[in-house]
Protein brassinosteroid insensitive 1 (Salvia splendens), 452 residues
Amino acid sequence: MAQWRLSLTIFTILAAAAAAAQSPLNPEEQEAVYRILDSVSPGTPWRSLFPDDLCSSAPHGVACDYFSSAATPHVTELSFGYVSDFSPNPACSPNSTLNPSLLSPFPRLRKLMFYKCFTQSKTPFPNFSSLSQASSLEELIFIENPALIGTLHGRIGNLKRLRRLILTGTGVSGGVTDWIGKFADLEKLTLSRNGFSGEIPINAFRNMTKLKILDLSNNEFEGSLPESIGFATSLLKVDLSHNKFSGKIPENLTCLKNVQFLDLSYNNFGKFGFPLSLAEMPNLKEVYLSGNSLGGEIPDIWDNMRGIMGIGLSSMGLVGSIPRSMGVHLRNACYIGLDNNMLQGVVPHELGDLELVRDLNLENNNLSGRIPFSADFLSKLGGKLKLEGNLDLCIDETLKSAKVSLDLGHIKVCRKPYVSRNALFHESFSPSSTFPFLALVLGVLALIVVSM
């Protein structure tokens, strides 16, 4: 015990000595922090609230690190806008402003973040071109700043060391042609819910071999998706949904072996059928293609896509039947959306064997026959099983009358024996099974003729 106390005392002395040996933040950086705090939240007495060395005592969101043997501190992070009690950054005022020239005194600044800081007064996107070409900035983040307007044209090109560029929920618009391919170290590019438009340059992704997250969703991008996306082989997530991309989905998506999440939904990708290349993406767990006019049949590729947890194929103009193999192989699926297509035939009973599925949407197709699911399956999904809009679907009376927490709407009770009005033309009826029915019909017709 005495030895432990001696060791603790020695550690405390050494720690105190090290702290005493550390130089304080230089006055130029200290003053620059105060000025930025004043611009983000004018009226708050920052200097009196935090009068000491800001590397020793500063508001949450202002962080320092020490460099070189002289233990010289420098500001490395500036984050503004209250996020939560776990991240209580300095709150922004409705009159927040930012002059990038205030960042010049920070030679080691790595992260700059603004959360809900520019929400009322229209504020042009800051021009970071005033910073040195050698700027150390690695993370530039603007989240939920709807009053931030203007373009990025000529404003961020100097930030060559960027690893994360996040701009989401702003009024920033215009194209991205002059800068998107210039950040070879970029690992995360999120530009969702802005007003960006125009085409993505052909070679935009050729040098982005470190890119892991690409999110351009909810903008006005148009034209073809560049084939150069196949060079971004480190990608884990791709979200291009809710844009105006058109043409063909690039076949070299097969190069993206690490992608787990792919969302191309609600674009204008044309009538080239379901992209078979998806079956060559071994780590794919979620894929969403809804709202594109791809057309064609659902291919039988699910043996190669066993890891899928969510798949959205709504409103795609799909025809033909639902492959039984979807129910056989998609054992990890929690969500399957096949609604608002032109699918025909019976519902494969194998879908009812998917133990993890919690949301199955088949509504507004041309499906027919008996609903093949058990009472347990119906109860498990409840309102998350959607079958309405299939006029020739029916349910057994025993299931209809069972106490199942499911609203089947206008789904009718099956006749006994049930014969679909499409039976004569449906591929699931073989000639041997339809012959007795045809013979019966012809016999009745013959009797009618004879009696006349």
